[in-house]
Structure formats: C-alpha cells, structure tokens
Specification:
Blueprint: E1 12-25, E2 28-41, H1 46-53, H2 67-77, E3 81-84, E4 95-101, E5 108-111, E6 114-117, H3 118-125, E7 136-139, E8 144-146, E9 150-152, E10 155-156, H4 163-172, H5 177-191, H6 197-201, E11 216-217, E12 222-224, E13 229-230, E14 254-258, H7 264-273, E15 284-286, H8 293-304, E16 308-313, H9 318-332, E17 335-340, H10 343-350, H11 355-368, E18 375-377, H12 379-386, E19 389-397, E20 407-414, E21 422-429, H13 439-454, E22 460-466, H14 473-485, H15 488-492, E23 501-508, E24 534-536, E25 546-551, E26 563-570, H16 576-586, H17 601-611, H18 613-616, H19 633-642
Parallel strand pairs: 14-15, 14-16, 16-17, 19-22, 22-23
Antiparallel strand pairs: 1-2, 2-10, 3-4, 3-9, 4-7, 5-6, 7-8, 11-24, 12-13, 12-18, 19-20, 20-21, 23-26, 24-25, 25-26
Helix pairs in contact: 7-10, 8-9, 12-16, 13-14
Length: 658
C-alpha cells in the first residue's frame, strides 16, 4: 500500500503498485507485469477534504457555495468511502457517499409520527450540534449526516481526476522505456513468484527474464498533399508548412466572436496571421462570457450569413464552450471553431510565433468545412480504393463510477474513396451496456449516406470496434454482426451473394503489454521508444483469435503503448500482413494531426463523437447526478432520450466533431 500523501493535498498521485496478470498465448502461458499509478485520497475530515478540493480558504466557506461549486463537489465525492465519527458508529463498515445535501440541518423527516429536523435529531440522539448552513452527505441507505461528522478513509480514488492531478501523476511515472523496464523488473522481484509454495508444489516455474519477441517495422505510407507527395520526415511524422491541402474548403462568409476580452490589436493580428486565404471575417464581435452566448452567436452569425464562427474563449471556460458547441452542432447547425485564449497564445500571436498553433487550427477548420487536408498512399490504400469500400469506427463510452448518466454509442463511417471524410451517428443507451443497442439504425444511416453520394453501396466494409474486453468478443461478434446483417436485405437485396464483405476488428488500448527495443530498434527522437509502425504478430498472440500488436504512433513522452488488434471476422479473407498495413495506413488519416496516431482514424473519430454527448443533452440534464435512480430502468433511460437532441441536419454529414 502506498504511503499517505503529505497533509493539505487532495488525491495526491503516487506509484500505486505492480500490476500482474496471467495471459494464455499460443503454445505457452505468460505473466504480464506492468507498473501502474493511482490517486490516493487520504484519511481526513470530510469538510477539510472538500474545502481543499474547492480551494477554499476554510471550511466555513462550504456553507455559501455557488451552484457550480456544489455540482463539482458532488461529482468529486460520489462513491467516496467514509467513516461516521459519532457514538455508536465506531467499528461499523465504511459507508459510501451517494449524494451531498445543502444545509443538511434544516431538512425534516418523520420520526415517531412527528416531523423533526436533522439538526434537532442529532442534538437529541447524538448530542451533536450541526452548524447552520452545513453541508451534509447521504450515505447509502443510512440517511443523512453532516460532513463535519464524517472522515474519509485512505482509499484509491476511482472518479475522474482533475487535469492538475493528472499532470502531477505524470511526474511519478517512469519517464522513458528504460526507467519503466527497471520499475517492472523491480516489481517482478517483489511478486516473489519463484518463492511461491503453491507454484513450487504444482511444479510450475516462471522464467524471470523478460520475454523476447520478434517484430518488424511496417513502411510508412507516403503523405499526399494537393501540390506534392511527401515522404514522412521521420517514421510516422510529417509537416504541413507551405503545403496545399488536397481539397481546400470553400468559405463564403465567416465571423469572429470574442468572449475573452482580447487586446483588439493582438486579436486582429492573430486573425490576419491565421493564414485563411479567403475573404476577411465579416466582423469581430466582442462580448462577455456571462452573456447569453447562444443569442450573441445567433446575432453575429445572421449578420454575417456565416458558414463558420470563430469563437475566442477564456483559458478556463467549460460552460461557455459547451454553450458554443450546443449552439453550433444542435441549435443552429453552423460550424464553430473555438480558440482557448491564454497569455502564452496572446504573446505568441503578438510576436508571430504561433505557426504550429495556426497549423493545428487550420487542419480542424478545413476538415469541419468539408475539405480534405492530406491522405496516405501505399498499397493498402490503393487496395481500399480499388472497390467501393466503407470503413467504420464504433465505440461505446460509459459514465464515471457512481454517475447516473447513460452510456453513449457512436458510429462514424467513411463516405469518400480516400477514406478521409466521415459522417457520424450518436445514440443514448442503457448505462454500462457495451453492445451498441441501436446499431442497425446507425448502420443503415451510414449505408444510405454512402449511397446518396455514390449511387452505389459499398462492396467491402471494415469495422474497427473500440473498447471491447476479451470476455465480450463473442457477444459482439454475434449481436453486432447480426444487427448489421439485418439491414442488408433492405439495402442490398435478399441474395446474400450481393452482400458486402464484412470484416470486424477489435481495437484494444487498455492492456499492459509494452515493448522495449534493442538499441538499434529505438527511435532516438522518440524518447527511446520503438519506431512508428512496429508490429508483433507472434510469440504473444492469442491461442484462438487472429491478432497482432501495432505501435503506430511515434514516441513522445513515457513509454508508447501499442494497440491490440483482434480480428473477429475476416470477410475479405485478407492476410495478417494486409490487415496490419490497412490499420497502419488508417492511423495516418487523422485530420487533426501531422503524425500517425495510436489507433485508426475512424476509431478516434468515434471516440470524439462520444465525448460530445454533453452538447446534445439539454440543460435539465446538467444536474442529473442529483437525481435518485428510479426503480424503472427503462423510465430512467427514457428521461435521457427525451432530453437528448440529435445533430442539426445542416452539419449532419460534415466532420463537425473534429
């Protein structure tokens, strides 16, 4: 167990422990050892923990919190385990926080046929005085307690950590592959498998040396621009400076709205240097973040008849950002591009040092407006272009532990032969259900959109499915493939010979396999990681399924994690080599980056669509975690569906999600 964090910290990240699991592979069993980190919540008074989390000057300020702070605190504490420090409660099992309650002492309940307040009950039953305005917590089914009477136990914090904690956690983690391998070796020694009486008694021995595997390096595709072909400067990376997009987007009119109170001179220079070789913006509207954002955007957009609104936001403005995206994606159906304005960006813009930022911004804007930035070119991409082909990325995201929100499913599908343009569907489904429940409907929409653009249905379909554990492979294979097949008679006809070749590949990211290369296999500019395109399809492969590990991204920080590809259905009867090259090529199609990414672009896009679910929910859902779970799960799900709006038809077939 890690040592307790220093006093005054909330959830200080520490090196948690060594992770070990036993994995069957072809011909042998391996022990998969890795190091992990976690966030430890210390044992302390609950009021003190809460005040430190909200960065208050003292616990007295907890009695006068804004609604936004209460919401943050509710999400932070939900699921946290505490002890109640009152007579008669010592030695009892730890209790779990279900909710927080404002001014808990005033709340009344029936006691012996009479109405009494929580404050009066505690004064009589426990001789405990609750301060007026005190926050309370609901603990399981045991009722309400003031925070002042509760103490957290030291525990692994399982909720989503703040960006500050995540950044600090990185300081605890091995900084490069060599350090990580040393940490894993040390962790292996602590496991003491060689001394286990159970293993010795069973006649089982474990080789203490790291397993050597044979891999190979896939060649990087050539990156094609509108005016040239460019071989990557280094395996998996390229530059867009002074390059022409394959298809520059057309912008008839655009406008700028500034909610960050920028210096007008600096902002005007930023806009001028953005490099958009189109007409200048219709206007630069200045407003405050406290304004009615949808109204400001609507007025500015109508005045300009804008096809795009560039929105300047303060550095930390999650609520205004949500309002901007809801207005653009759902309400109005207009492309919005947000710029998070900071002192550094303002300084870089003033001194004309923001070229990289401009490049990243233009990549997103061009893709959102229907343009194509670049495309990879190799034998795999030529194969995909040779016959009408659709590539699908699908994903299901689940709410944080303790949340009452539903799960979100997303499907993106390519609609061009270059496999660079995608349309998206998003749906609400039962919480923590991994199977995509509305897949038939979403798949039909994708096929219909493809047909409308090409007057033909795809002959080959490749599905890259994200986020599925090994225990759910067969369920996904049976239910999701059948859901797609149900659509085919209506679109392709009843003759199965006319149906498309369907290939289903699971893309896994949450695993603990890591590769540490010999000196000649390490990328000197990749933090000592292996080169982009390193693939392993032997030694550690699955005994049943066709699979491989591909590290497609160039190394940056820490130790690169390869993605694990498991082929559940190979409708095109392709070799492993061909599937590997297809997967690697698609990792070069992510329009927001100038480098190969760690998973195929359609999988990344599906993940982005899932993350945007918060823009689809109405404001009524903002406090949904304050609700009690109804006994009728379907009624609970219906509530979310009723308050969930689909994407506006004006941007539905665009890549609004990048």
């Amino acid at each position: 167990m890690p040592s307790r964090p220093p006093p005054g910290t909330v959830g200080r990240p520490v090196a948690a422990q060594t992770n070990a699991s036993v994995r069957p592979t072809l011909g042998k069993i391996v022990v998969n050892v890795d190091v992990t980190i976690g966030v430890i919540l210390p044992a302390d008074n609950l009021e003190k923990i809460s005040a430190e989390f909200l960065r208050l000057r003292g616990i007295r300020e907890l009695g006068d919190l804004k609604e936004s702070s209460i919401k943050k605190l509710r999400l932070f504490l939900k699921g946290v385990k505490v002890d109640v420090e009152l007579p008669g409660h010592s030695g009892k099992r730890h209790k779990t926080i279900k909710d927080i309650v404002v001014d808990v002492g005033k709340i009344k309940f029936d006691k012996g046929g009479e109405r009494t307040s929580v404050a009066d009950h505690f004064a009589i039953a426990h001789r405990y005085t609750i301060r007026p305005g005190s926050l309370g917590v609901k603990l399981g089914s045991d009722g309400l307690f003031p925070m002042s009477a509760c103490k957290t136990i030291q525990q692994l914090y399982k909720n989503r950590s703040s960006p500050d904690v995540v950044r600090e956690a990185l300081e605890f983690f091995p900084r490069d592959p060599k350090q990580r391998l040393n940490a894993i070796t040390a962790g292996w020694q602590q496991l003491k498998y060689t001394q286990s009486p159970f293993l010795i008694g069973a006649g089982i021995s474990v080789n203490p040396q790291p397993l050597s595997v044979q891999g190979r390096l896939l060649p990087s595709p050539t990156i094609t621009f509108g005016d040239s072909q460019l071989a990557p400067q280094r395996q998996g990376t390229w530059d867009v400076m002074r390059r022409r997009f394959i298809k520059p987007a057309q912008i008839s009119a655009w406008t700028v709205v500034d909610f960050a109170n920028c210096d007008p001179t600096v902002l005007n220079r930023f806009i001028a240097d953005l490099g958009m070789s189109v007409i200048p913006p219709h206007n630069v509207v200045r407003s405050l973040p406290s304004s009615v954002i949808a109204q400001v955007l609507s007025t500015a957009g109508r005045a300009a008849n804008a096809t795009m609104i560039l929105v300047i936001l303060p550095e930390s403005a999650p609520d205004p950002y949500r309002e901007v995206k809801r207005f653009g994606d759902i309400t109005q159906g207009v492309v919005t591009q947000c710029v998070k304005w900071s002192r550094k960006l303002a300084s870089d813009a003033q001194q004309r040092r923001a070229n990289q930022y401009y490049n990243n911004l233009i990549l997103k804007i061009n893709a959102k407006l229907g343009g194509i930035n670049y495309m990879p070119k190799n034998q795999a991409m030529e194969y995909l272009k040779s016959t009408p082909t659709m590539v699908i990325g699908s994903d299901v995201s689940h709410p944080a532990p303790g949340s009452l929100l539903p799960s979100i499913s997303a499907l993106v599908a390519s609609v061009d032969e270059r496999l660079c343009k995608y349309t998206a569907s998003i749906r609400v489904q039962a919480s923590r259900t991994e199977i995509i429940q509305d897949l038939s409907e979403m798949f039909k929409i994708a096929l219909t959109t493809f047909y409308q653009m090409h007057k033909i249905y795809p002959k080959r379909i490749f599905v890259f499915r994200d986020g599925v554990s090994e225990g759910e492979f067969q369920t996904v294979l049976s239910k999701e493939v059948e859901a797609m097949k149900d659509v085919l008679p209506e679109t392709y006809g009843k003759n199965q010979a006319d149906w498309p070749e369907l290939t289903l590949i699971i893309v896994g990211k949450r695993h603990h396999f890591r590769f540490f290369g010999n000196a000649d296999a390490q990328d000197p500019r990749g933090n000592g990681n292996l080169y982009s395109g390193f693939v392993v399809d032997q030694d550690i492969i699955h005994p049943v399924y066709q699979d491989f590990y591909l590290q497609s991204q160039p190394g940056l920080k820490g130790t690169s994690r390869p993605s694990h590809y498991t082929v559940l259905r190979n409708g095109s009867n392709l070799s492993s080599d061909a599937l590997q090259e297809i997967a690697y090529a698609l990792c070069h199609c992510y329009s927001r980056a100038t480098r190969s990414v760690k998973i195929p672009a359609p999988v990344y896009y599906a993940d982005l669509v899932c993350r945007r679910a918060k823009f689809h929910f109405s404001d009524d859902v903002g406090s949904v975690d304050e609700m009690s779970v109804t006994s009728d799960e379907e009624q609970h799900l219906d509530y979310f569906k009723q308050h969930f709006s689909d994407i506006n038809t004006r941007v539905k077939n665009s890549m609004y999600f990048v």
